[in-house]
């Protein structure tokens, strides 16, 4: 979900060396289609393209319980009832409005107009303050040292920012 | 600016299709995986 594109996502993928396909959603297309405002999320989709499960926020493939749930789902021959954790409310019109502004900012960012992109992204954030995909993208561009200076993202700093309402 | 509201997809419904570039510069669509079970995991560097 990196607006900064494949060059930001690639190092993590290289480190994990996964066997699955990695796609880059710079434009928050999935947030536009599925209505989420935060990640990490997980969806399980059956052979017919039907949604079996969606988890919005806190989907962690490193957790044993998640591995177990996903493995059982993947090996089941019949679709079974999964306790889906869909806590999504239908988003208001600010959701798509903010994503449209975010996408405008992305166009500017790709042209090297970072200051202009940040203005646009902040308009998006003002319209939909709950959208953490947009908010965290702003943080990552304004404060790269909190994200990319070491192996670890500084989540304590992010918590402080949220508490300060930034 | 868009003033549409979104009907969010529900369990038991078709997952809205999407096409995105892969890290290798190819294109991938959810539709490409019809006939297989698919796990979609969304993450970011931040």
Low-pLDDT runs of 5+ residues of chain A are: none
Number of helices of chain A: 7
Biggest sheet of chain A, strands in spatial order?
A: 1-2
- Major β-sheet of chain A, in short? 2 strands, antiparallel
What kind of oligomer do you see?
Answer: heterodimer
Largest beta sheet of chain B, briefly?
2 strands, antiparallel
How many separate domains make up the residues of chain A? 2
The strand line-up of the biggest sheet of chain B is: 1-2
Gap between N and C termini of chain A: 20 Å
Anisotropy-based shape of chain A: globular
DSSP summary, beta strand count of chain B: 3
| Proportion of strand residues of chain A | 5-15%
| Principal-axes shape call of chain B | extended
Q: Rg of chain B from C-alpha positions?
A: 14 Å
How would you explain this protein's 3D organization?
- The complex is a heterodimer of chains A (166) and B (46).
- Chain A is mostly helical and 166 residues long.
- Chain A has two domains: 6-75, no CATH class; 93-164, no CATH class.
- Chain A has helices at 6-16, 29-34, 64-75, 93-110, 114-127, 132-142, 155-164, and strands spanning 41-45, 51-55.
- Chain A has a two-stranded antiparallel ribbon.
- In chain A, a hairpin with a 5-residue loop joins β1 (41-45) and β2.
- By secondary structure, chain B is mainly β.
- Chain B has a two-stranded antiparallel sheet.
- In chain B, a hairpin with a 5-residue loop joins β1 and β2.
- The chains are: A mainly alpha (166), B mainly beta (46).
- At the A-B interface, α1, α2, β1, β2 and α3 of A face β3 of B.
Can I get a quick summary?
The complex is a heterodimer of chains A (166) and B (46). Chain A has 166 residues and is mostly helical.
Present the secondary structure layout.
The complex is a heterodimer of chains A (166) and B (46).
Chain A lengths: L5 H11 L12 H6 L6 E5 L5 E5 L8 H12 L17 H18 L3 H14 L4 H11 L12 H10 L2
Antiparallel strand pairs in A: 1-2
Helix pairs in contact in A: 4-5, 5-6
Chain B lengths: L18 E3 L5 E3 L8 E5 L4
Antiparallel strand pairs in B: 1-2
